[in-house]
Amino acid sequence: MTSVLLVRMPPFYVIPFIKSALLTSHSLSRVIVVVLFVAMLRRRDYQKFSKTQISLFYLFLGYFFFHSLSVINAVNYDAFLLRYKDVVFPGLFLLASFSFLKSKLDFIKVMIWSLLVNFAYQAVAYTWPSLYSLMGNSLLYEGHREFVSLNLARGRIFIETYDEIVLPFLFVSGFYTLVKNKLFRVIFPVLIIFPTLLSNFRSRLLMLVVGVGLALITWFKSWKVVIGIGLGGIVMMFSSDAISLRLWGFSILDRVLLKSNYDDIQSLTSRWEGISQSFELGLRHPVAGIGLGNYFDFLPTYVRDSVFSISNYYGGVWISSLNPHNIFAQIVAETGLLGLIYYLGMLGIFLRSDWMIYRERKIKEDFKIACIIAFWTLFSYSLFNPTTTLTYNTLFWILRGVIIHESTS
């Protein structure tokens, strides 16, 4: 669980002031999961895996195969390898979840503790930017710090921890066992909802709507409770709107209403153009795609030039242009039409399996249902954003592993 905790938090340098990508918390999580993998092999834990666990791992191997095959057409091998490691390690996390997940309470603890750390991180970044900059220079992984700082300069905050997926775990019996104080039970959802509304990131709002919506449908039958939650949400919405307007001159509500032609409307237009270009690339390379991380290298020259001109306007924010802002576009471009067909089939299997569990909604399986809601909440992020981080891909496969683990335990 330590490795999952490290992945759930922003990457920081393990040894302060020594700035090396090999000495970050995420790198440490990779080392830990490799050690766990070796321990699993030595103990021959794989002999105890259930048929459903083995089937899920075979699905991962198919996913891994198509991503590996994409190296055939890659032209930028550094970019390929940078992305490839975040395909390999989630598979090890998946296997580790089969062998070393002993208690659902431990998993919920990881979610709670990482949520507290991430909330404190965002609070400092928003309210005390000078301290954030001072501490971040020596403690935070440089690539992450630059990404967050540049977004803060644009009135947005996103730390790539996907805290919205924690929300369904706050309504299960395991959480009530760990947190007995009723006031704290109310505070924890606020620690997710309020930062999301303040973030000015529409994708975070989408995740929040999916998570809250599914939680309400699943667990709350009383209209009084639903109305109470709704009123609380309205108060937080107006409060965050007032704060954002005071700080940045716009709010997440403005972004949803597309009030800015450049930031809100053209960003959607450019994403649609990127999706169209991705499918064109995938159709031109149907068997193996263009290779992980090679999307930008295959774009027409005029598109790349326009990206660099926009980057100058935003002080160098062009990293998001390196990848399509849609999971299906990303898969078809990087792994080809065959890779997309496989991915759609895999999602179909997940959806069918989850629906069979969800429609029964047994009280004793509330943790498993929370994992299902968390998984699809996480997936909703991928509909409008690249999914290139270790955190996203690890959570994607760990949640699948936990669902299967709970189904066989």
Topology:
Layout: H1 2-7, H2 25-43, H3 51-69, H4 77-100, H5 104-127, H6 129-139, H7 142-153, H8 173-178, H9 182-198, H10 202-219, H11 223-248, H12 252-256, H13 261-284, H14 295-298, H15 301-313, H16 327-358, H17 366-382, H18 390-408
Please supply descriptive tags for the structure shown above.
409 residues, 18 helices, single chain, globular, mainly alpha
What can you see in these coordinates?
- It is a single chain.
- By secondary structure, the protein is an all-alpha fold.
- The chain has one domain (2-408).
- 72% of the residues lie in helices and 0% in strands.
- It contains 18 helices and no strands.
- It has helices spanning 2-7, 25-43, 51-69, 77-100, 104-127, 129-139, 142-153, 173-178, 182-198, 202-219, 223-248, 252-256, 261-284, 295-298, 301-313, 327-358, 366-382, 390-408.
- α3 (51-69) packs antiparallel against α18 (390-408) and α5 (104-127) crosses α6 (129-139).
- It is globular and about 55 Å long.
- The model is unreliable at 309-319 (pLDDT under 50).
Summarize the model shown:
The protein is mostly helical and 409 residues long. The protein contains 18 helices and no strands.
Detail the poorly predicted runs. 309-319
| Overall number of structural domains | 1
Structural class: mainly alpha
Structure summary, number of beta strands: 0
- Ends apart, CA distance between termini: 18 Å
